[in-house]
Amino acid sequence: MMKRTHTCNALRKNDVGKSVTLIGWVDTLRDHGGIQFVDLRDRTGLTQVVFDPQHAALKEDLHHLRHESVIEISGTVSARGEAETNSKLPTGEIEVSAESLIIHNTSETPPFPLDDEKTDKVNEDLRLHYRYLDLRRPSMYNNLFVRSKASKATRDFLDEQEFLEIETPCLFKSTPEGAREFLVPSRLNPGKFYALAQSPQQYKQMLMVAGVERYYQLARCFRDEDLRADRQPEFTQIDLEMSFIDREDMYELIEGLLKRIWKDCLNVDIPTPFPRMSFEDAMNQYGVDKPDTRFDLKIEDFSDCFKKSGFKVFQGTIASGGVVKAFNAKGLSDATQGEMRELENTAKSLGAKGLAFIRITEEGEWKSPILKFFSEEEKAELQERLNIENGDLVFFGAAEWDRTCAILGRIRLEAAQLLKKRGRLSIPDDQYNFLWVIEFPLMLFDEEEGRYMATHHPFTSPVPEDIELLDSDPKAVRGQHYDCVLNGMEIGGGSIRIHQPALQKKVFEDILKIPVDIVEERFGYMLKSFKYGAPPHGGIALGLDRIVSILTNRPYIRDVIAFPKTQRGQDLMNDAPSTATPAQLRALHIEVNDLED
Amino acid sequence: MMKRTHTCNALRKNDVGKSVTLIGWVDTLRDHGGIQFVDLRDRTGLTQVVFDPQHAALKEDLHHLRHESVIEISGTVSARGEAETNSKLPTGEIEVSAESLIIHNTSETPPFPLDDEKTDKVNEDLRLHYRYLDLRRPSMYNNLFVRSKASKATRDFLDEQEFLEIETPCLFKSTPEGAREFLVPSRLNPGKFYALAQSPQQYKQMLMVAGVERYYQLARCFRDEDLRADRQPEFTQIDLEMSFIDREDMYELIEGLLKRIWKDCLNVDIPTPFPRMSFEDAMNQYGVDKPDTRFDLKIEDFSDCFKKSGFKVFQGTIASGGVVKAFNAKGLSDATQGEMRELENTAKSLGAKGLAFIRITEEGEWKSPILKFFSEEEKAELQERLNIENGDLVFFGAAEWDRTCAILGRIRLEAAQLLKKRGRLSIPDDQYNFLWVIEFPLMLFDEEEGRYMATHHPFTSPVPEDIELLDSDPKAVRGQHYDCVLNGMEIGGGSIRIHQPALQKKVFEDILKIPVDIVEERFGYMLKSFKYGAPPHGGIALGLDRIVSILTNRPYIRDVIAFPKTQRGQDLMNDAPSTATPAQLRALHIEVNDLED
User: Fold this and answer.
1) How many angstroms away from the CA of A479 is the closest CA of chain B?
2) Residues of chain A numbered 22-41 and touching chain B (CB < 8 Å)
3) Smallest Cα–Cα separation from A543: which of A202, A319, A231, A235?
4) CATH number 1.10.579.10 given to A13-105
5) Could you give the ipTM of this predicted complex?
6) What are phi and psi of B284, to 5 degrees?
7) How do residues A63-91 score in pLDDT, each as one tens digit?
8) Is the separation of the CB atoms in A191 and A242 below 8 Å?
9) Which residue of A164, A177, A480 is the best one to mutate when testing the B interface, meaning the one whose CB has the most B CBs within 10 A?
10) Does A546 count as an annotated binding residue?
11) CATH homologous superfamily of domain A295-421?
12) Where does this protein reside within or beyond the cell (chains A, B) (predicted)?
């Protein structure tokens, strides 16, 4: 059995003259006047190997060499001439003159080129089908490498903070609220089902009741979602829970954790503490609860300004309880008709009737169909508060508060894209704007259901000074929830939990109006556990997939998951899911419905 | 919000005079002449707190104190008098005189005492129902603590060895061979099912094809087994795979890993390298493929001796291809009638017709119903090879080779138990006999199926020098499989895999006789992947639950799993599994069969 003496990224000029054995894949294969040059690749890098066919030991095998074959060579390290030096490769000053060759496995011609740039453009389904080949690309390997590093950094940090890694079950109880669950029929309990845990939430709270004090887990979680662009049926969260802490402790802990991850993975020092923003400010200024603060374009409220406006659309909206907001897409006055139509479509898809705007030409002329309705005072206030200059483009929203925020929040992001395209807004790849968003409302009234729903989940503790509002004005109650936001993406969220059994019961039954028998069935054991000395506790879950995709600067989490599923939940490599045998279904006491239904 | 200044295991004599704040659970509560003494407990230990009810700030709350309530106290550290010192507690030289008390949560009277010794005897179902209370016991917390430490040691070691931690999917393709799988209906692919991965076997081999070279994962695995005494539907393995290695590399790696785990968890240095034993020797000498070598009682083969014996049972067995074996249960001649009956029942349950034996009295008299058939030469050979002395008890087995081994292997273990009970065999708790069992047959002929079945799995590579026997004498082919055995328990197993597509196809189709279409459906993608330059590779999986149960000296793996299921697969705490709603089932296109079937 072979033993390599070096990896393919190890040899340097001072190794010249050494006898070495390398093993790896044939990355490239070139013939220069009868001499064969191979770039031999392993996970660490490339080394050039030279085969002189005059060498008796090589003659026979040499013409079997193919791209992506696995070979082992022994030979001597030699220096390359100055002209032959490859300054792009760490091993570029040397090459290995092969004296023996073993072909461990040959390769058929791969279905697509394994080249970092070209392969990104290959049909993704094809790449998923041959995932084991796609992963051979150095950039894909690097995604896995960084993910492993981020996991290790997380574990090292939390271990130093005296957290215990504890595994909680995946086979959990079905709690059919919230996201859709995967069900697992139980053979030993016919007619009954497990649900694959959507998160370890309930178990980790039980660990706090058990006195564990500090728990963490890189937890596999499962959600049977209609797969949106960037969701996966199974994903991983950095899940943790602590007793005897408050929100400040949690901010400090997570800032330390993320600092460590960024340091270990990218050698980047991220500044802490992170800025904090209330939910209300986030919505008002950025139109979203996960603001991207890497650029400005802040939204301003003009409801006071237009309260008595001659523009009846604005005036009427405000009179009926709505708001008027605007932001200045700085320097975007050259937006094309097509781009404006796109923006308007976005606004309409969010429930706007249209998208009012003012275009300010390079010459300073204001152009807008609605301008004629505005008073000079209104224009002056817009000018001043939005800092309007030549070449700007101002967008308006006028509707209920939350809808107005949402519309302008999305238009703001799309406007930023248009500015980036024009080179007027540039965001460095390595800019990381972390942010805590806090003071969320504890619950929101759901018009469809006709009752309050927990904004995050029903275990979140109210802010203490708001508890007395629970009966009188539930929607004013703020929760002790916190979201961690990075560059406009939510990378985690958590809360201080309710630990008092009476308060938890009140939230379930009196506020959220969950029927008593359902509360008992789904959460009865938690309420019971709280009666035996539950400590004050809180926790958080951070999306590991998302964090790694940001660390590796990849757009999709499937790029940082070794074997992702497609949007239809399929593993194209091995063709899962597949049909079950009749015997399997019989044993589980289930049958498949008529699929024509 | 409170901040504790110290944990409950931190204060010592040199802290006397300090003002401190502690938080924890009321472990014990005693009244000595109006003064209340509380042992305050957190996960680290206990500190005695003294409440003087004269203290105005305490008066009101003090009579609300209950066992297991969560309280926070501030006070001053004082020295205990010599008579009051508790030498069993690290904090036994001090106590804290409370000046303030906050009760964070009260507790109802727990359903069982939270006491390490007594609670072990409480009905296990009750303890599982209140798992969050059972876990409060220091010994149970310690199990979780050691598990966390063992996981960390594993990750640290494998990280140093340049392994990448890579997560593979739980939602896998159904491959209905081997152990029974859990099925998961796919809503997005009606009529199709995922299987919960029984192990990452196929995915990790794909990672090797992908060029990852060194992969590990603490992998959650799922098996829908009829739960035997010590199995769980989900369990965790230390799962790893490497390219470009042979068996020796794997032995060295795993010995290093286990050495590190034992060092980090127990501060015990285990000697390496581990002894190795062939499958054949293990069966011949210990009657089992996972020998407990902490005691001797070795089995010897007497087939040659009895080939022409006057004892027709032995002679006939040998003549028809069977074997005669025996071992000396040293010093067990005082086995009772009842014990002998038990042993005979064991033998019969394994297919023996009876259990022949010779009892050697303390006076040296040999007693046995079969003695009269033995020649003097036969007795002399027994005497010599089994080192028979006064007070011994010799057991015989006579049947086919594998059955004889299995019977005497079990009798050997039961005899050892009887010797332990009598104090004639003592095995220290901290004796760790590691062992590699190697050279397993690659496959075994399955009489029922009428074909060869892979001894471990169909991906195991044959020993190179045996490959030529694949067609002519398959049962003689040894596999490159290795089992890691500790104290008679298999703690892990693995193999060097087949990486040549033609050989893998041959094993599937020609040797194991799996129909071509089934091979294509289940393993087609693996065979295909091997055609694109699969490297030589191998791996192993170690049972983390079992390892931790040995480290913590607990008999069952459920003791080292935070939330285990019962033997019927139920979580008694939260009542999983449970019924699904009709809407859930409709969405999944399945229905539950008539359960009367």
Assistant:
1) 16
2) 23, 25-26, 41
3) A235
4) no
5) 0.95
6) -65, -40
7) 788 999 999 999 999 999 889 999 999 99
8) no
9) A164
10) yes
11) GAD-like domain (3.30.1360.30)
12) Cytoplasm
